[in-house]
Q: What sequence folds into this?
């Protein structure tokens, strides 16, 4: 059970479900303590669907709202460097305190695209929360306010993260075996 195969690539367990749960509880506490007024969480699909659900279940002290944005920048094992358009925000979010929810921030290209698009919608404030962060791959200057766990430049799958669409349903996070 420690190793799995997806599309002929082998992955080994990296962050198990208990650790994921601990990371999320810690993040939820930090966000609650920041006491942001009527935060609007914007989860980036598809990757953050489980993270968003589990994080929000642990945020009970705030009048939290959630919305979903769709966008993709990844094909196979490497970033394409090309990001698709944003889809999903249909209502007026001007003046809102937004917290972006990402499964993973790698180069930051996706994050930049999201931040620039949200700024055009006249939001009051943008904070960023990510389950995983690859500091050695990050090329941008945007502050990442809430980081679950910083990791090396390994390719990881599971708990929302995919390898060519497989692996999102896995309970644990796995990394590619060399
Ligand atoms: P960035 O634009 O390079 O920061 O990449 C962000 C997106 O690429 C994430 O939202 C993921 O969908 C995907 N991604 C980055 N690293 C990984 C990984 O290790 N495994 C699976 N998807 C990843
Ligand atoms: Mg993603």
A:
């Amino acid at each position: 059970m420690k190793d799995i195969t997806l599309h002929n690539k082998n992955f080994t367990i990296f962050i198990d479900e208990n650790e994921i749960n601990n990371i999320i509880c810690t993040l939820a506490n930090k966000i609650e303590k920041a006491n942001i007024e009527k935060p609007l969480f914007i989860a980036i699909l598809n990757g953050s669907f489980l993270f968003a659900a589990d994080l929000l279940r642990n945020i009970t002290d705030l009048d939290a709202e959630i919305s979903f944005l769709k966008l993709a920048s990844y094909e196979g094992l490497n970033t394409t460097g090309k990001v698709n358009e944003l889809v999903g925000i249909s209502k007026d979010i001007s003046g809102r305190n937004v917290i972006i929810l990402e499964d993973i921030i790698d180069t930051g290209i996706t994050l930049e695209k999201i931040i620039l698009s949200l700024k055009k919608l006249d939001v009051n404030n943008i904070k960023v929360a990510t389950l995983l962060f690859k500091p050695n791959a990050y090329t941008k200057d945007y502050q990442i306010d809430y980081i679950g766990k910083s990791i090396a430049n390994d390719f990881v799958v599971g708990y929302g993260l995919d390898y060519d669409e497989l692996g999102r349903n896995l309970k644990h996070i796995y990394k590619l075996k060399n």
Summary: The longest strand covers residues 97-105. The two ends are 18 Å apart (CA to CA).
